[in-house]
Structures are given as C-alpha cells and as structure tokens.
Amino acid sequence: MSDISAKDVKALRDQTGAGMMDCKRALVETGGDVDAAVELLRVQLGNKIGKLAGRDATEGTVQAYIHANGKVGVLVEVDCNTDFVARNEEFVAFAKDVAMHVAGSPTTRYVSEDEIPQAAREAELRVFEQQAADKPENVRAKIAEGKLRKWMEETVLLMQPHVNLDRFDGKTIEQLRADLSAKTGENVVVRRFSRFAVGE
Predict the structure, then answer these.
(1) Residues 4, 6, 10, 13: what is their CA dihedral angle, to the nearest 10 degrees?
(2) Predicted local confidence at residue 50, as pLDDT
(3) What is the per-residue pLDDT for 48?
(4) Which residue positions in the chain have pLDDT lower than 50?
(5) Is residue 33 located within the same domain as residue 125?
(6) CB neighbours (10 Å) of residue 69?
(7) Residues 105, 67, 183, 149: what is their CA dihedral angle, to the nearest 10 degrees?
(8) The pLDDT of residue 114
(9) What confidence score (pLDDT) does residue 1 get?
(10) What is the distance between the alpha carbons of residues 95 and 142, in angstroms, rounded to a whole number?
(11) Burial of 120 (0-12, 13-18, 19+ CB in 10 A)
(12) 123 and 27 within one domain
C-alpha cells in the first residue's frame, strides 16, 4: 500500500506525537498497518516519544473496580495532557484495568519505585541481609539485593505484570502505560490508587 493518505498520516501523528514525515515513512514501511507503524515509531523514536513524560498531566479520569463478592474495591486516578484523551475509550479502559489489577494484588502499596520511603527500603534491605547471613560472605549482598528487588516487584504497581497475564501477554503496568502513552501521544501518569477490603 504505497498511497498513504494525509488523513492516515495525521491520525498516526495525533496518536503518537511523532513528526509528519516519520509517520508517513512508518506507514509506508508497514504497508499502512497502523499498529505496526506505532510499534516501529516506538522503536525508532523511543527517546523522543519518551519526552512526553515532561508534559504536565492535568486531565484524566478516576475509575473504580468492585470485586464480584463485594468485599474488595479500588479507586484509581490516571492522568494525561488533554480532556480529549481523558475521554478516550482506551484510556478509560486502561484505568479500569489498573484498578482491577490493584484489586487482585493486595501487596501493592506504591505506584512507582520513587514513592518508596528511603527508611522503608533500608529496613527491608537490613532484614534481607540478616536472612542471608548464613550464606557465603561474597554472595550475601547479591542475595539481599535480589530479595529487595523481588519485594519491590510485589509492592510497586508499575513493576508488576498485570494480573490478567493471558490478556496482556505478561506485560507490566509500566509497559502498558508506555504503550498507551505512545499511542495517544500524551504523558499518561498513574497518579494514585486506594484499595479497600472488608475487614482490613
């Protein structure tokens, strides 16, 4: 498909934030396959698309998930740059998927690694160092660091593979967020969440 229309190019630009010529070239290279073109642009312009992170995310949505048994509920706020994207079906669906994930992940406490208080990180590391005390001295630090990384994966939302592994091919919340950011051409930010469970 060599006759790529200006409308197709503009739609891809709106979706990714990439330049018009980059969008046209990506569409030509992928034979007009939009999803493949988005992927190609992410590979080629990864850093440029990543600069979306610097833009203020002042629009967004709050979505909820209540488990079927009525005993677990989650509220999540996901932000973006424009009201147009905030009302986008895929954007809203992502927020709902994040809320569902948090409902199924009771150990999740922080959105990102940056949110972990230094004192909490150090306390965990001390525990892991003590647990590794009976191991050879040259591997103790490595074991403790490995356990700290695993603890962070259990408590940090963005580091976790979505609980619905089959549907999301084992992608982490951060990978899903980055995909949506590239697709919408906006800075997508998981701002905060609250998990409620009966009796907790």
Answers:
(1) 50
(2) 46
(3) 56
(4) 1, 50, 53
(5) no
(6) 7
(7) 0
(8) 86
(9) 42
(10) 36
(11) middle
(12) no
Residues 59 and 101 in one domain: yes
Judge if 107 and 57 occupy the same domain. Answer: yes
φ, ψ (nearest 5 deg) of residue 42 = -65, -40
Query: In total, how many domains does the chain have?
Result: 3
Tokens read off for 133 = 């005390």
Do residue 160 and residue 170 come from a single domain?
Answer: yes
Assess if residue 1 is contained within a domain. no
Show the tokens assigned to 92. 């809203």
Range of the domain at 88: 53-111+156-197
Q: Are the beta carbons of 38 and 67 closer than 8 angstroms? A: no
pLDDT score for 177: 93
Q: Which amino acid appears at position 166 of this protein? A: D
Q: Amino acid identity, residue 32?
A: G
75 located within any domain? yes
